[in-house]
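job 3f2a | input accepted
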Amino acid sequence: MLVERGLQALNVELVSEAYAIAANYLRRSGAIPHSLVTDERLLGIIVKLLQQGEFNKIRLANKAITGFEMQSEARAVA
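job 3f2a | predicted structure (78 res):
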């Protein structure tokens, strides 16, 4: 899946670690269901942040969580 998005092999581990951190938090908070299926919206946020130049996995995860929660709130209001 990440290869299809055009990511360099070097960044796959970074994306997967940031995704694991963010998804774990969001699952525990009840924002996403407990399943083995990848949340495409969360993954998309992480990939976008990476493309914008963020390479620290903790910052990637934290920014992705914030972005995901903001999108969820916007959807709830609309």
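job 3f2a | The CA atoms of residues 21 and 35 lie 15 Å apart.
job 3f2a | closed
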